[in-house]
């Protein structure tokens, strides 16, 4: 009996295992044929089981079923492609099969065709497989030729492992991603993404038929309207054009430190570059638009969105005023701005007379996302680009972009905003009087002269009171028992004889600083440091200068200010920035330097486009120049100085790319024969 019982149990176990293996074989398959279909209880897997295809229901409260592809390992389920977006099935008897004509067909419970690949001239020798790069492929099983694949029929996602056809100008085929209607409804939504086959190409997100967001043009390495496209981001996305002409491809690769990554356009119109790691799930490495400034044409024609503001805030370009003050007062920016002064080119006689017959000019505005609707002028250098725009009365501005070339605009300038870093220079066409030329300066001088003559009695009284105050202050300063009051007085109100460390340095009044910087206009801002903002200014003699204004919130106070003023005025070297003067009035502490037209070294080293300008000769010249400046500070100057905050943003470049060391606020003076020293605390930049 024992032997018989053992045999019965063994046969039962074998039968159970056979049934279990048959069930597993039926629930997971690796191809679809005319005799093998996918039912709602089954899934089609890729060879390495990275992707899975089958029926899914996006909403637990709905009976609608769709055929889609998702990542097998990722939870919750992330669908990357849907076959029947507009035609869901509602019963459990549906199936995805290959018909007698060799096409993939989705059939409902009554054998009606809901969706089909609809390829003409096929036979029943087809087979369907799911690849490890997420493509659902219909293949001729005899020749091995791919007849159809899902990558040619995208839904809302792009994922790694394949090259996506961006556009083919000959056939008219264009890549389009279309958002889901909602997170629980894969039917066609309101937003689409496509790459326009223009020169240069750019990507746009549309809401219906209206632009919603754009990337800016492609410069062979990045879309210039997306400053975040640095090396890590660019390694996950590549745009390949012109091989052959009129055809372009997009490739997506897995980002560093991500198990999976993909592009997707959300139901709200946000384009996201997502990364998935097991411990964290999906998170956005980049997304746009996320701020009001990024929405298309948010500020209307000739309006610029200001990035530093928490809410949508617009301003007009210089030389322009709001088209409707009433609308702008209500924060309605959509109608934008209009010119304040008519251009002389193509204008009437009165406009030419107003400008004294002088031609229009261009104002350079930096750090912008360039406007939309540009025209590309092939094989033009920067000077030719300038001249071509100047000669065309309808040209509103131009830009010369590394990697692209000459871009010009006619008519309105739309969709501009300030970028937090990177950005391009726009040369805006303005009437001569709007450029602040010599005629404008002459008018300012006349106004100042008339005003001065009219208030001579008042000035005389003020001088008398001031001299009386200085006399009393000097008596108090020399009092032996009141040293604290001496230390509290602003240093520049003393005569050189009263302070052995004082220096003879030109003093500028605050009013002249305001005139030079156009009241510290944002358009004149060169940069921002721990000390405070730096502005470009133009003195009344026409000389350009850099004006550093001590921020009231800066940790650097009167001591650092005095230190920098004293040091730089005594240090003279061709590789040190030259101090031209200072201003101390009320709470203002300002230094005036020579202007460095090429800004600081970091603007070249950390900008992919500008970095190309630093060939080895220029780099070597900069290295030698900085070394000479340091040697002078450490060994050869009348004062031995250590800088203590030397970094690339404190190395300025003149018009010939010669380096000059700047920012001596934290510098320390050594004794005349001292070569070594120590400090009690860390100084400089983190």
Automatic annotation (TrEMBL):
<feature type="domain" description="Bulb-type lectin">
    <location>
        <begin position="29"/>
        <end position="151"/>
    </location>
</feature>
<dbReference type="InterPro" id="IPR003609">
    <property type="entry name" value="Pan_app"/>
</dbReference>
<dbReference type="InterPro" id="IPR008271">
    <property type="entry name" value="Ser/Thr_kinase_AS"/>
</dbReference>
<keyword id="KW-1133">Transmembrane helix</keyword>
<dbReference type="Pfam" id="PF01453">
    <property type="entry name" value="B_lectin"/>
</dbReference>
<keyword id="KW-0812">Transmembrane</keyword>
<keyword id="KW-0732">Signal</keyword>
<feature type="transmembrane region" description="Helical">
    <location>
        <begin position="12"/>
        <end position="32"/>
    </location>
</feature>
<dbReference type="InterPro" id="IPR000719">
    <property type="entry name" value="Prot_kinase_dom"/>
</dbReference>
<dbReference type="Pfam" id="PF00954">
    <property type="entry name" value="S_locus_glycop"/>
</dbReference>
<feature type="domain" description="Apple">
    <location>
        <begin position="345"/>
        <end position="431"/>
    </location>
</feature>
<dbReference type="InterPro" id="IPR000858">
    <property type="entry name" value="S_locus_glycoprot_dom"/>
</dbReference>
<feature type="transmembrane region" description="Helical">
    <location>
        <begin position="446"/>
        <end position="467"/>
    </location>
</feature>
<dbReference type="InterPro" id="IPR001245">
    <property type="entry name" value="Ser-Thr/Tyr_kinase_cat_dom"/>
</dbReference>
<dbReference type="Pfam" id="PF08276">
    <property type="entry name" value="PAN_2"/>
</dbReference>
<protein>
    <recommendedName>
        <fullName>Non-specific serine/threonine protein kinase</fullName>
    </recommendedName>
</protein>
<keyword id="KW-0325">Glycoprotein</keyword>
<feature type="domain" description="Protein kinase">
    <location>
        <begin position="520"/>
        <end position="686"/>
    </location>
</feature>
<dbReference type="InterPro" id="IPR036426">
    <property type="entry name" value="Bulb-type_lectin_dom_sf"/>
</dbReference>
<dbReference type="InterPro" id="IPR011009">
    <property type="entry name" value="Kinase-like_dom_sf"/>
</dbReference>
<dbReference type="InterPro" id="IPR001480">
    <property type="entry name" value="Bulb-type_lectin_dom"/>
</dbReference>
<keyword id="KW-0472">Membrane</keyword>
<dbReference type="Pfam" id="PF07714">
    <property type="entry name" value="PK_Tyr_Ser-Thr"/>
</dbReference>
<keyword id="KW-1015">Disulfide bond</keyword>
């Amino acid at each position: 009996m024992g032997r018989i019982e053992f045999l019965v149990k063994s046969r039962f176990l074998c039968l159970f295992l056979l049934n279990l293996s048959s069930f597993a074989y039926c629930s997971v398959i690796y191809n679809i044929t005319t005799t093998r279909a996918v039912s709602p209880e089954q899934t089609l897997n890729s060879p390495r089981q990275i992707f899975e295809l089958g029926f899914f229901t996006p909403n637990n409260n709905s009976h609608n079923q769709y055929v889609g592809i998702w990542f097998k390992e990722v939870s919750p389920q992330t669908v990357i492609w849907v076959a029947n977006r507009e035609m869901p099935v509602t019963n459990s008897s549906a199936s995805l099969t290959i018909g007698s004509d060799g096409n993939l067909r989705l059939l409902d419970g009554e054998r009606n065709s809901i969706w089909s690949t609809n390829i003409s001239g096929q036979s029943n020798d087809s087979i369907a497989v799911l690849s490890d790069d997420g493509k659902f492929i219909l293949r001729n099983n005899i020749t091995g030729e791919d007849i159809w694949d899902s990558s040619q029929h995208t839904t809302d996602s792009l994922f790694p492992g394949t090259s996506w056809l961006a556009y083919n100008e000959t056939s008219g085929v264009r890549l389009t991603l279309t958002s889901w209607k909602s997170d629980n409804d894969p039917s066609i939504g309101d937003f689409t993404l496509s790459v326009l086959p223009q020169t240069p190409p750019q990507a746009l997100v549309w809401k219906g038929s209206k632009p919603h967001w754009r990337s800016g043009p492609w410069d062979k390495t990045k879309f210039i309207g997306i400053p975040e496209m640095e090396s890590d981001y660019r390694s996950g996305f590549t745009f390949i054009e012109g091989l052959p002409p009129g055809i372009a491809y997009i490739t997506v690769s897995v980002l560093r430190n991500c198990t999976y990554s993909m592009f997707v356009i959300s139901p709200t119109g946000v384009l996201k570059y997502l990364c998935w790691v097991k411990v964290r799930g999906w998170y956005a490495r980049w997304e746009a638009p996320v701020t009001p400034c990024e929405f298309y044409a948010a500020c209307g024609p000739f309006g610029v969105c200001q990035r530093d503001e928490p809410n949508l805030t617009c301003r007009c370009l210089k030389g322009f005023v709001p088209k409707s003050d009433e609308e702008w007062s209500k924060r309605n920016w959509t109608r934008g701005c209009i010119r304040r002064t008519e251009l002389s080119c193509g204008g009437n006689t009165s406009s030419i007379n107003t400008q004294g017959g002088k031609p229009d000019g261009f104002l350079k505005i930096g750090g912008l996302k360039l406007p939309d609707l540009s025209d590309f002028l092939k094989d033009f250098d920067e000077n030719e680009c300038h001249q071509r725009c100047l000669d065309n009365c309808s040209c509103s501005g131009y830009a010369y972009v590394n990697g692209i070339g000459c871009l010009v605009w006619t008519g309105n300038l739309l969709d501009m905003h300030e970028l937090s870093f990177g950005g391009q220079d726009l040369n805006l066409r303005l009437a001569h009087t709007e450029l602040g030329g010599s005629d404008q300066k002459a008018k300012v001088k006349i106004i100042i002269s008339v005003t001065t003559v009219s208030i001579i009695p008042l000035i005389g009284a003020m001088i008398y009171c001031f001299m009386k105050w200085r006399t009393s202050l000097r008596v108090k300063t020399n009092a032996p028992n009141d040293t604290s009051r001496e230390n509290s007085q602003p240093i520049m109100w003393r005569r050189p004889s009263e302070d052995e460390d004082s220096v003879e340095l030109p003093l500028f009044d605050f009013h002249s600083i305001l005139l030079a910087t156009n009241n510290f206009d944002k358009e004149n801002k060169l940069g921002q440091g721990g000390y405070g903002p730096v502005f470009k200014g133009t003195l009344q003699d026409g000389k350009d200068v850099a004006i550093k204004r001590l921020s009231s919130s800066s940790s650097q106070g009167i001591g650092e200010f005095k230190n920098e003023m004293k040091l730089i005025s005594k240090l003279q070297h061709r590789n040190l920035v030259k101090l031209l003067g200072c201003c101390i009035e009320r709470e203002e502490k300002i230094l005036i330097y020579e202007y460095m037209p090429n800004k600081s070294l970091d603007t070249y080293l950390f900008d992919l486009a500008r970095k190309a300008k630093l060939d080895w000769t220029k780099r070597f010249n900069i290295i030698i120049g900085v070394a000479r400046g340091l040697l002078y500070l450490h060994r050869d100057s009348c004062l031995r100085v250590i800088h203590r905050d030397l970094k690339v943003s404190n190395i300025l470049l003149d018009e010939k790319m010669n380096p000059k060391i700047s920012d001596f606020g934290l510098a320390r003076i050594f004794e005349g024969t001292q070569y070594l020293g120590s400090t009690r605390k860390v100084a400089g930049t983190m």
